Amino acid sequence: MKEVLAIAAGASMGAVCRWWVVLLMQRWLGAGYPWATLLVNALGSFVLGFLVIWFLDKTHLSDLLRLLLTVGFLGSFTTFSTFSVETIRLMEQGSIMVTLVHTIGSVVLCVGMAWLGMLLAKM
Fold first, then answer.
1. What is the pLDDT at residue 57?
2. pLDDT of residue 1
3. Measured on CA atoms in the order 86, 89, 91, 93, is the torsion positive or negative?
4. If pLDDT is split at 50, 70 and 90, which confidence band does 54 have?
5. Which residues fall within 8 angstroms of residue 14, CB to CB, at 6 or more apart?
6. How far is CA 28 from the centre of its chain?
7. CB-hemisphere CA count at 13 Å for 103?
8. From 61, 91, 94, 123, which residue has the greatest number of CB atoms within 10 Å?
């Protein structure tokens, strides 16, 4: 039961933080392109990459904290489903090139950010 509560606590914080990022990005850059989803997925990939190494090799923090941060917070902060729907919306707007750059760029960016996070944690 402790595990479920830790995940739920992290998930509620991650979801609220994602919503704040969406509001800020729409205010700064408008709602025409899914900047917020790109940002949360890139940041989340970096942090998860870092934490995977950090929790395994660098620290002996509790499993509850690991679950709260990784499964809970980052699981709700990042969003593949929103990325998928926004990609389809870009496609429906008729710009195949923007859709391709968005899709490939998002995957490359997020995998690269996870890799950078892991490299940083190994230092």
1. 76
2. 94
3. negative
4. confident
5. 72, 73, 74, 75, 76, 77
6. 20
7. 15
8. 91
